[in-house]
Every structure is written in structure tokens, then in C-alpha cells.
Task: structure prediction
Amino acid sequence: LAKTTQPISMDSYEGQEVNITCSHNNIATNDYITWYQQFPSQGPRFIIQGYKTKVTNEVASLFIPADRKSSTLSLPRVSLSDTAVYYCLVGEDNTDKLIFGTGTRLQVFP
Amino acid sequence: DTGVSQDPRHKITKRGQNVTFRCDPISEHNRLYWYRQTLGQGPEFLTYFQNEAQLEKSRLLSDRFSAERPKGSFSTLEIQRTEQGDSAMYLCASSLGQGEEKLFFGSGTQLSVL
Result:
């Protein structure tokens, strides 16, 4: 069973753009890719979702290549409050399970 | 806005005791998920329901774990004969279940087994 993998941690400064990549080789054909943000002692919170190419909302962009085996969450101009753990969530092929990535701990410095 | 609610927020129990957690999803949501999260790790899939039917169950879920969603609304997760390794945050999420799976999570139940 292929894992959904992410870099363990990333550091950034306020105002910079941050790109976090998730590798999901075993993604189900028809499933979306979703990204979540999680603060300590809270449940994950939805950021953005896409199926292919590029999606943008008021807080982030999501880039998905044609083979859909990876995705990149882009956070423009991060602030201190963006310090959190970020997870991708994908459907597992041949099942109905939704599997979280390994998570990326983002630390934003002033 | 009535989001996903979980009860209790915290539970401390002694090894060998049974515990039950409750999840109330967003009212029109058909799908309900349970995840387990230990410190420093990502949420691990446990099981999910489409209405009252339990459609997937992780191999992580031993026979001591059981989940129900009797009327397709709230759900309960029971752990029998708790072990120290069961200590974790138990997260519930719900979704509309219509193609795109946008999950809304509750705040979780933090279980500590002494």
C-alpha cells in the first residue's frame, strides 16, 4: 500500500509564498484531492479541493499535474497565524477510504 | 451554524474499561467518518458510513472497536477493554457524499487510558 507522503516540515517568513507538495501514487481515479490545516487540539479544517489542473480560492491555490500522482498547495504571503500542520487527503484506489498524508508542519517566522 | 459535534471532549479511563464516544454530524450530511490521531501523527482512517451502512473498516480496527450509526444521523464509537495504546484523539467528520468529499471535522474526543 503506497503511502501519501509530504515533507515533514517547512520554515518560512511572513509575507513569503509557501508551496507544500503531496505525493499520492495510489490515488483513486475519480477522487478529489483535498488539503486541510490543523492547529493543536483541533480537528482539521478544509482549505481547498481540486480534481485536476489548478484551483484557486481566497486563501490558497492547488496545482495538480495531469497524472494526478502529486499535488502542490500554495499559500501566498503567509502570516504567523498560518503556522500549523497541513495535510493532503486523497481517496485510496479500489476502496472508499480517504487517507491523510503524513502532514507538513509549517513554521512561519516574523 | 451547527457543525460536527463530538462528545465528550476529553475522556480519562482505566485500562480494561469500556468507553463510548458520540458524534453528531451536520444534519444533511450522508457520510460520516471516524479517524484516530496520535500525537505528532496524521489522522488514521478507522471507518465510514453512508447513511446507516458501514461501508469501510480499517484493518487497524481490532475487534474491540465497534461503530454504529443506527438511524443515519449520529454515530457512536465504542472501545471495549481499553488498552494504553488506545490513547489518542478520535476525530469524527461528515460530508454530503455527492462526488466531492469535503469533510467537516469535529473537535475530537481526546482519550487517555491510564
Notes: The interface with chain B takes residues 31-32, 34, 36, 41-46, 49, 87, 89, 91, 95-103 of chain A (CB under 8 Å). The mean pLDDT of chain A is 92. Strands of chain A lie at 9-13, 18-23, 33-38, 45-50, 53-56, 61-64, 70-75, 84-91, 98-100, 104-109.
